[in-house]
Design a protein that fits this description.
alpha/beta, N-utilizing Substance Protein B Homolog, Chain A, Alpha-Beta Plaits, Rossmann fold, 7-stranded mixed beta sheet, 17 helices
């Protein structure tokens, strides 16, 4: 835990990070950049800054709605604005004492260039504590603020999921669990869960090869991780390997493969000739690294899935296409604020091009598994329906689970509804005839 008198360092780093993200910077890049600006920060302060950054952005819609009520006019200084957002997040959701949060935020503001920042931060935060009940009533009347998403996002889910849109939004605001995938070549989920128990690590066997840790831990400390016994992978993502239906000797293509989690699972399930394709050289290196840890062979190819592969054919193709990532926002909280409604259209166009090209690479009788980590219908079943209308040699097959884990899954016609157990993925299995 961060010492109370050092909390302002974490607040400063988090404010710098939040300001970068709100300007359009990806959180995974913004956080280390901001941390590097404070070379003397302790590991605890850096970790605290990460927690505050993720938390503030997770609930940005709510926190910002409170802030706008407290300000007479919008703040021109983005860093002071971000510091207030971080402190308000703490007052609303963190376990730190109110006095400590305010005191440390004021100290953090004293390092800001505008001299008025210190007094403003102090006044705004104390007004929040005095007026919180009244302010909260106004928040409840605004769904975008109440659920902490952009208004267009809320409205889209209301239309597409009239019965459970609120539950989906709330699921995206909770901390995700740490799920492991057990390598069936080396162990089994039940056996591995027992191993963890003997080592004093609490875990639950939730699926065919899925084990959920009660408490997250560094991968270096996970028994068997470095030897390739387990990998970290969301339970919902683990269904790709099962539904692709791979068999020994088949030619298999994992398109848009990085970072390689699904490729690793495919290679664990059967002795196939696996090709991993991605258009980003650095991300492709991660695929190679992940497969090396598993000690499984893979042919990594650099290329654009929308145009790659002239003259080649495959028995199985995993089309894990680029998407809005609207189903994994609990892991990537910045997506809720960086994504725009127009992005849905651009992604569907890109997906259509990739799907059309990959279909040409699929052998007759072969199967293609279309996957997104989105919950928007335009990228999912609507995309598949459009494809089927234009391709008479394609049939959509039913998805069947071959394990006893159905009680842990929330799935509707190929769409995994985000829940405590898994993120929001969409699957569609197509066969060529």
């Amino acid at each position: 835990m961060i010492r109370k008198h050092a909390l302002y360092i974490s607040q400063q780093i988090a404010a710098k990070t939040v300001a970068k993200v709100l300007k359009g910077r990806n959180l995974t890049l913004a956080l280390p950049e901001s941390q590097s600006s404070f070379p003397k920060a302790t590991p605890q302060q850096r970790g605290g800054a990460a927690d505050l950054s993720y938390g503030t952005l997770r609930f940005y819609g709510e926190v910002n709605a409170y802030l706008q009520q407290l300000l007479e006019k919008p703040l021109a200084d983005v860093h002071v604005n971000a510091l207030l957002l971080v402190a308000l997040y703490q007052l609303l959701h963190d376990q730190a004492e109110d006095f400590t949060v305010v005191n440390q935020a004021v100290k953090a503001a004293s390092y800001a260039k505008p001299r008025w920042a210190k007094g403003l931060v102090n006044g705004v935060l104390r007004n929040f504590l005095r007026q919180q009940v009244q302010l909260q009533a106004n928040i409840k009347a605004n769904p975008a603020a109440r659920y902490a998403y952009q208004e267009w996002w809320v409205n889209k889910l209301k239309k597409q999921y009239p019965e459970n849109w609120a539950a989906i939004l709330e699921a995206g605001n909770v901390h995700p669990p740490m799920i492991l995938r057990v390598n069936v070549r080396q162990s089994h989920a039940k056996e591995y869960t027992q191993l963890l128990s003997r080592k004093g690590i609490e875990a639950t066997h939730i699926g065919k090869a899925a084990v959920m840790l009660t408490k997250p831990m560094a991968v270096e400390q996970i028994p068997g991780f470095s030897e390739g016994v387990v990998s970290v992978q969301d339970y919902g993502a683990q269904l790709a390997g099962e539904w692709l239906d791979v068999h020994a000797g088949q030619q298999v293509l994992d398109a848009c493969s990085a970072p390689g989690g699904k490729a690793g699972h495919i290679a664990e399930l059967a002795d196939v000739q696996l090709t991993a394709l991605d258009n980003d050289e650095k991300r492709l290196q991660r695929v190679t690294s992940n497969l090396s840890r598993l000690q499984l062979p893979v042919d990594c190819q650099l290329g654009d899935a929308a145009v790659w592969g002239k003259g080649q054919t495959f028995d199985r193709i995993l089309a894990d296409v680029p998407c809005t990532a609207s189903g994994i926002v609990r892991r990537h909280v910045d997506i809720k604020w960086l994504r725009r409604a127009s992005d849905v259209v651009s992604f569907t166009q890109q997906q259509g091009l990739i799907l059309a090209n990959l279909w040409h690479l699929l052998s007759k009788g072969g199967k293609l598994l279309y996957v997104t980590c989105s919950i928007f219908a335009e990228e999912n079943q609507q995309q598949i329906d459009s494809f089927l209308k234009n391709n008479n040699d394609a049939t959509q097959l039913p998805l069947e689970l071959t394990n006893d884990s159905t009680n842990n899954l929330k799935i509707q016609h190929g769409q995994l509804i985000p829940s405590a157990m898994h993120d929001g993925f969409f699957y569609a299995l197509l066969q060529k005839h």
